[in-house]
# Entry
Amino acid sequence: MDEVKLINCMRCGMCLPHCPTYRETFLETASPRGRVALIRKVTEGELDQSERLLEYLALCLDCQACASACPCGVNAGELVAEFSCEGKAGQGGLNFMEDLILRKLVPHPDRLETSMAPLRLYQRTGLQKLVRHLGILKMFPKPLARMEGLLPALPARPLRQEISEVTEAIGPERGSIGFFLGCVMSLIFSDASRATIQLLSALGYKVITPKNQVCCGAPNMLGGDLAGLQEAARTNVEIFAGYEVDFIVTDCGGCGAELKKYGHHGAGEAAAEFSARVRDISEVLALHADELALLLQPLALKVTYHDPCHIAHCQGIRREPRQLLKLIPELSYQELEAADACCGSAGTYNIARPEMSDRILQRKLDTIASSGAAVLVTSNPGCLLQLKKGLAEQLPNVRILHLTELLLQSLRAPVALKPS
Ligand code: SF4
Ligand code: SF4
# Structure
């Protein structure tokens, strides 16, 4: 643990109103300042790592809203994650389940895709509808029932299996993009990633999607598996080094934030070069805003935007998505109150800490309702899952789309927006 990062906290409290868990509890120990102080005390040997202390730290969503607010550059979310990784290493590493998921499943796209087949069958056979109708899930352990409730309709096939490795540019070629397929985007939100590729192609980019790329490693980081994250970084850096591309683009906020940090994970100069070429899709599309504006057709919709933490706080991208939405003729853009406040998804947080996650989600749903928007746009799979479920339960008339899905709808207009 880098002690300099800990002593940088001058205890001003400017981060407090931005921290979702502090807003819900008003507990100092559930605030960024409190978490930094707890880690510092343990690091300096003044405090033992009690269960209670670990619980306060585990309540952190790693949303990094505190980092955006801190005048001293302290990132409490990142410090908590680092502290957990070090703790895990000190306890002798991963347990059986963690090893199974983080080492034997997540880094292998084929296995991940196979593991989703039973769920696809569960939906296709109508079993899901029956199970939900009969309320059978109430008899299952709560985390399982919650996971099931978050599951949207799965595509017939993961995008990785469906698309060709090269998508040619439409018209004169301006350059090449290496497309990073996030696991959840490919497995669940394949329509959005297909839209991403089509938009890039329409703007004159040849899009190369290496089929052997692996998960970005964010689940390893979340699970305290630094070695697994480093292995993911090495593999992806090596794979993309085999292609001459101008940018490596992702439409997943979580992947983008992780890929941009590869250079810090000790994977050498090649990793730093890789990270320097990584862009969120909104960054690349915004480079060509003038041309895109000429291609977009009117969509008379009231739209609002939720900033995913991994895009706004971790990557500092706020202007581009809004700029792109405002390019769509006749679209009425309504800024969301506290648009960059976490939605409570945070990886597996919504399963592990359902009560806190629901409280945080409720605040977000209330702001969406006040906005009066008919469409909510965001660009991170975790947010899409969490908000899709919340909207279905409380605001069924509000549709949720990935940024690229809405832009593609406009590119293809005058076709009416598909009902969700
Ligand atoms: S983390 Fe930053 S904003 Fe929060 S109390 Fe410390 S110095 Fe102030
Ligand atoms: S990362 Fe989010 S939840 Fe964690 S301390 Fe910072 S603001 Fe609070």
In short: The radius of gyration is 21 Å.
